[in-house]
């Protein structure tokens, strides 16, 4: 157990958001994920393809949607992540995306505009 400064007790024996931000290993892991996402975003302007495959993402950051809009992204691969829902921020860029890969997620949980991109 870890006792937070405010007296809150947090169980860090199982991985999670609290453990990731309060252990050196968790902070290093988060840093590696951020670095991987940034590296993937660097090439999107030239290739119009954004590949964020296997980045351990639980959601897509809004900054990524802004990047997709300004870079005119045509292809987006978000497969093999931990995403369970899609932000409404995807809708404005959905008209320019021709392919979207969210596998192996069950697409029935997503809005219609996302399902259309997956077809």
Brief summary of the model shown:
With 119 residues, this protein is α/β, with parallel strands linked by helices.
Task: Offer a few descriptive terms.
119 residues, disordered N terminus, 38% helix, two-stranded antiparallel ribbon, three-stranded parallel beta sheet, alpha/beta
Could you explain how this protein is built, in words?
With 119 residues, the protein is α/β, with parallel strands linked by helices. It has five helices and five strands; from the N terminus they run ββαααβαββα. Helix content is 38%, strand content 11%. Strand 3 (49-51), helix 4 and strand 4 form a beta-alpha-beta unit. It is globular and about 40 Å long. The protein starts with a strand and ends with a helix.
Give the tally of β-strands.
5
Alpha-carbon Rg, integer: 17 Å
**What percent of the residues sit in helical stretches (DSSP H or I)?**
25-40%
Q: Give me the secondary-structure category.
A: alpha/beta
Spatial separation of the terminal alpha carbons: 46 Å
| % residues in beta strands | 5-15%
| Order of strands, widest sheet | 3-4-5
What low-confidence regions span 5 or more consecutive residues with pLDDT below 50? 1-17
Profile the largest sheet.
3 strands, parallel
H and E order: EEHHHEHEEH
Question: What is the strand and helix layout of this fold?
Answer:
Layout: E1 2-3, E2 9-10, H1 17-22, H2 24-42, H3 44-47, E3 49-51, H4 62-70, E4 75-77, E5 99-101, H5 112-118
Parallel strand pairs: 3-4, 4-5
Antiparallel strand pairs: 1-2
